[in-house]
Amino acid sequence: MKQSSKRNSRDAHWCCVDCGVNTFETDEYYMVHDAVWRSSGLAQDGGKLCVVCLEARLGRKLTQSDFTLARVNRCIGRYWRHSKRLADRIGEKSLSIVAS
Ligand SMILES: [Zn+2]
Known about the structure:
By secondary structure, the protein is an all-alpha fold. The protein has one domain. 33% of the residues lie in helices and 0% in strands. It has five helices and no strands. The structure holds zinc ion. Zinc ion binds next to helix 2.
């Protein structure tokens, strides 16, 4: 059970590799499809990117289809919160209808 592991918000691995913002604290932790992540130029385990920096690298806005069905993208309020920006890109309204 991954969710029971303690998350340390000060841990450097939460920080965006481009701007240094802590994606845990800004609620911009998410999972995108491998192809999308590859397009960013970062390795799979190359770190985190906030929404703004990932979009800058991609040269476009993220859309709902870029995100996987991973729990971090869906279980809003239970384990993860999403920033307004992330919620907008994920299309949270339609996803929360599916979840309920
Ligand atoms: Zn950033």
